[in-house]
Structure formats: C-alpha cells, structure tokens
Write a structure and sequence with these properties.
The complex is a heterodimer of chains A (about 110) and B (about 450). Chain A has about 110 residues and is α+β, with helices and mostly antiparallel strands. In chain A, about 20% of the residues lie in helices and about 25% in strands. Chain A contains three helices and four strands, in the order ββααββα. In chain A, a hairpin with a 2-residue loop joins strand 1 (about 5-15) and strand 2. The longest helix of chain A is centred in the first third of the chain and has 7 residues, at about 30-35. Chain A is elongated, with a radius of gyration of 14 Å. Chain B has about 450 residues and is of the alpha+beta class. Chain B is about 30% helix and about 30% strand. Chain B has 14 helices and 18 strands. A ten-stranded mixed sheet of chain B has the order 11-12-8-7-1-2-3-6-4-18, sandwiched between helices. In chain B, strands 5, 14, 15, 16 and 17 form a five-stranded antiparallel sheet that branches. In chain B, helix 1 runs parallel beside helix 3 (about 60-75), helix 3 (about 60-75) packs across helix 4 (about 90-100) and helix 8 (about 170-185) crosses helix 9. At the A-B interface, strand 1, strand 2 and strand 4 of A face helix 10, strand 15, helix 12, strand 16 and strand 17 of B.
Chain lengths: ~110, ~450
C-alpha cells in the first residue's frame, strides 16, 4: 500500500530546509505512520535530494508527523538553481512511499 | 463571550484580489489583513526605493486598496497589512491619497517604521545563521536588514484609532495577533493566549491555503469550485478560541484536513514556533469540524518570548543564467539527454565560468532529481533545462546562449527555446538583540 492511500501531505520551506507534513486521513492509521514512515526511510526515499538530516516530529492529537529536512533546497529558496526552488512538489514524492499493509486492529 | 472576525485578504504579494472584496462585502468581518511580504520582497523593494525614494512599497497597494477601501470604510472594517515593504511611510501617504480620492476625509492611517535595522546590523556585526560568515563580511553586497517586528506597534496603532495599519517587515501571524490583542486587551505576557492567537494567525496568513488552495488532488482530495476559491475568516473569542470558516457560497472548503495541513506549513519543531511576541507551541493543537466549512481549533499554547528578533537580510549573490528547449515524439527522451550532454561539453569547450551548474529534463527528473525519478515511464515530450551560477551577467548570458544554439547545432527537432539571465538577491538571517530595534507608529490623515 502506498502512503497516498492513508495520508495527505504538504511541503513548506524556510531557507535551505524543507518540512513535509504527513497526516493520516483516519486516526487509526497513525500507528502505521509511526512504524512505516521513519526519518531513515524518508531520507532514503529522497536520495539525491536531501543532503542534510531528516528529523521527525510527532503530533498524535492530529495524527500527523512533521519531517524537517535540512540541506534540501539547493542552498536556499532565494538562490537555488532548481525549477521548484521552494521544493513545493516534494510532498507528492513522499506519498509514493510504500508503507505495507494495514492490519485491521489499526 | 466577545468575538471578532478577521478576514485574510491575501497570502502573498501577487494574490487574487476578488476574494478580499468578497470578504469585505459578505464576510461580516471587523478586520481585513493582507499578508503580502515574502522573504525576499523587502530586499527587492529596498532596491526599488534606492532608485526612487517615493517607492519601495507593494506594487499592488493601490489596486488592493481601491478595491476594498470603499466597502471597508463604509462598514468600519480595519485594514492591517505589511504592504509597506521597504517604505511603510510612503505607503501610508499613498493610502491617504487614495482615501481622499475616493472621498473619505476622516480616515486615519498608521505606518509602522523601525523594522529597518540595517545600521544597527552594520555597526555591531552579527553571525549569519544559514552559513559561516557575518554581516560585515558581506560588505557592499548587503542590501537590506529588516527585523520581524511583533504585534505591539500594530496594537498601538489600532488603539490610536487607525483605520489602516501599514507595516514593513513584521511576523506574519502578528498581523492577525494585533487585532486580537487590541480587541480583547490581552496582556503581552499571557503566553498561552498569545500562543493560541499565533496558531490563529499562522492558520490564516496564507489565505487560500486553508480554504482548499495548495490542497486539491483529484480522486484523493477533491475541493469544490476552486476557480472561485474563497479566503478564510478567523472567528476568535476573547479566550483565544478559534473557528476557521469562509464566506458562505464562496469556492473551496474549510475542513479538518485543510486546517491540519496549514497548521504544519513551514513549521519545524512544533513545540517551538519562534515569534517576536511568544514562543508558540502547536504540538497540543486539536482540530474539529463543527459544521460545514467550520472548524474549531484549540490547544495552542505558548511560553515566554526570546530576547532576540529574527532579522532577514537581503544581499547580492551573483547571477543565474538559464536556457530551455523542448523535444517531443518518439525518441524525445534520448534527444533531450543528448542535448544536455552537448551543452555540458560546450560550456566547458567555450570556457563559461560557473560556480554551479544544473542539468534537468523537465517532464522527467527536474523536480525530484534522477534517483527519485528513476522508475518513471518515458514521457511523450521533454524540456531541456540548463542553469548555472556565475559571478557576472556576461557569463550568465552565455549559459542560455549555449542552449539556444541547439536549434541548429543540436539534436533533431528542438523547439521553443527560451533563455534568461538575472542577478540574484538572496536572503539569510541573523538574530538581533530585541532592544536594538525601536519601532514607531506614525499617523497620517486623509483630510484634504
């Protein structure tokens, strides 16, 4: 199962850092997010894009995770050579992540 | 309990104008906020002001005010905006002139000045947060330094009877926090109220991004009538309670999902959202749909503000040259790749001096890079894009030229070549001891 089936996402930018939220449509899938969408997997998924660290913050009240990725925006939005200097399209790439099956009790 | 309704009339400098008119006409609002000042905009505005001291404020100031002022003045809706950019005083004078020309002779317009801290920054020197270096080391490449001011000067302006408050650089949520502090008399050290007010401001500041803009994904996340996307209204109670809604009948949607996405937009550590007035904590926020296009947001908290203000500095950062050309039909991908390889070699052969180069195939790998895009199917058409960083304009122009020459010197059937070369105004940040910024409120009347 792809992440896109159970979660939605939005990208934000500050300087050379991108943040991507991952929000479960249903609270019962939050546990799967916690298990399947780790900082390590996000960093590996964005190989060649994220040059710095990926830090994950957890927001159980809204069944959401927030990933903060440094060294991601070509030196910073205002000087980047990239077509998408803000990295606004990154959230769509993350939703393609394979998250495995969801068991019924989740 | 007393409540106020604040409309968000713009989420960036070029935003649509008609939703703001709709908010003023039908939103039953008491305040209309226009957030129009991007990270880099002040630096660009400063350049404009250096060329003409009368300018340096938002280029759409006149168009926006002419569109909403007749309604706002008639209904007593107060306007708060950062359209002052690099010249809030000039913007306030212009606003007074516009008000007079529309026949309003008793409007009071306030300019907040003092966000410009260039002199203080040059005098003391501060380390740059994003890279190794200091302000002094930027030398004459430094264009501007503007502190993110908090809500207090705007609150003072509203207390002084301002109908229109125009700031330069201020924290975006503070544009919304100021009306709350003014209307409810919140204390400037009631950190939890300021924290919850910051949640409200943060949710509203990007306008359409909470009513269904930057959200729709057909089949997964559908939003009705995006063409007429309405802008949000925050219904705030004196205890900080917040309901996010929009004008009935406008396009878009306010749902728990749109609110959650916007809550985390451009947020790093949700427990530490640093603001000039408070360190806000978003981590305990709850979101609940209580009716159609009505979402209750609670749980924002805060702790004591820090001793520093974030300062955005603008500086000249060399030049960028760029060229693009398209290939389509059978073999398009191979021809696009060949084109990139030709340009890569020619830039070397002709000795174009660059410090950084980037080769993309738009439609293939330009957004997420080669590795993330590796498994995508072959597209019908591709667009070659070459960009490079240079020290001067002459070298930047040569990059686009080497793409354009692919017409007659490259693979078969390249079309739609395009090129550009531009100077780069980049921004970075420093932290300034709070006491080194001294904001002031200047009042102007629209009396003829």
């Amino acid at each position: 199962m792809k992440l896109r089936e159970i979660a939605h996402s939005r990208t934000g930018d500050k300087g050379n850092t991108s943040n991507i939220s991952v929000i479960a449509y249903e609270a019962r899938h939050y546990a799967l997010l916690l298990r399947a969408v780790t900082s390590e997997r996000v960093k590996a998924h964005f190989a060649g894009v994220v040059e710095g660290d990926v830090v994950r913050y957890e927001l159980p009240n809204i069944s959401a995770l927030n990933f903060v990725m440094t060294g991601t925006l070509g030196g910073g939005v205002t000087r980047s050579l990239a077509l998408d200097a803000h990295g606004k399209s990154l959230s769509s790439a993350l939703l393609d992540l394979e998250v495995g099956a969801s068991s019924d009790h989740e | 309990m007393r409540t106020i309704r604040i409309g968000s009339g713009a989420g960036y400098s070029g935003d649509r104008i008609e939703p703001a008119v709709e908010l003023a006409e039908k939103g039953d609002i008491q305040y209309l906020v226009f957030e129009c000042l991007g990270e880099r905009t002040v630096a660009l505005a400063q350049q404009a002001r250096m060329k003409n001291p009368e300018l340096g404020y938002d280029r759409l100031l006149e168009e926006r005010l002419r569109a909403v002022l007749p309604i706002c003045a008639a209904k007593g809706i107060k306007i708060v905006t950062n359209m002052g950019a690099a010249n809030p005083e000039g913007a306030a004078k212009k606003a007074a002139e516009i008000a007079r020309s529309l026949g309003f002779s008793s409007l009071k317009i306030a300019a907040i000045v003092g966000d410009d801290v260039l002199d203080a920054c040059k005098e003391v020197d501060f380390p740059i947060m994003e890279f190794d270096g200091t302000i002094k080391q930027l030398g004459n490449r430094l264009l501007s330094a503007n502190a993110y001011l908090g809500a207090e000067p705007m609150t003072d302006a509203l207390r002084g009877g301002a109908d229109i408050v125009i700031t330069g650089r201020a924290s975006d949520p503070a544009l919304f926090l100021a009306p709350m502090i003014h209307a409810f008399g919140w204390s400037m050290d009631d950190w939890n109220l300021l924290g919850q007010g910051t949640v409200a401001g943060h949710l509203l500041e990007c306008a359409g991004q909470i009513t269904g803009g930057y959200f729709a994904d057909p089949g997964c996340k559908d939003i009705p009538d995006l063409a007429r996307l309405g802008f949000p209204i925050g219904e705030v109670g004196e205890d900080g309670s917040l309901i996010v809604t929009k004008v009935a009948g406008s396009g878009g949607a306010v749902t728990a999902q749109t609110c959650k996405e916007q809550l985390l937009y451009e947020v790093h550590d949700p427990t530490q959202y640093l603001q000039p007035d408070v360190v806000a904590d978003f981590s305990q926020v709850r979101v609940e749909e209580i009716g159609p296009d009505r979402v209750h947001v609670s749980g924002g908290r805060g702790s004591k503000r820090t001793g520093t203000l974030k300062v955005s500095i603008g500086y000249l950062d060399g030049f960028i040259g760029e060229g693009q050309i398209s290939y389509a039909g059978p073999g398009a991908l191979a021809r696009g790749k060949l084109a990139l390889e030709i340009v890569r070699q020619r830039l070397k052969l002709t000795g174009v001096a660059t410090s950084e180069l980037r080769f993309d195939l738009i439609g293939v790998d330009s957004l997420h890079g080669e590795r993330v895009s590796a498994h995508a199917a072959e597209p019908y058409e591709v667009r070659v894009r070459v960009t490079g960083r240079t020290e001067n304009l002459r070298e930047a122009v040569r990059i686009g030229n080497e793409v354009e020459t692919l017409y007659t010197n490259g693979p078969a059937a390249g079309g739609g070549a395009w090129k550009s070369a531009r100077d780069v105004v980049a921004v970075a940040s420093v932290l300034l001891p709070r006491e080194l910024a001294s904001p002031q409120v200047l009042f102007f009347g629209s009396v003829a």
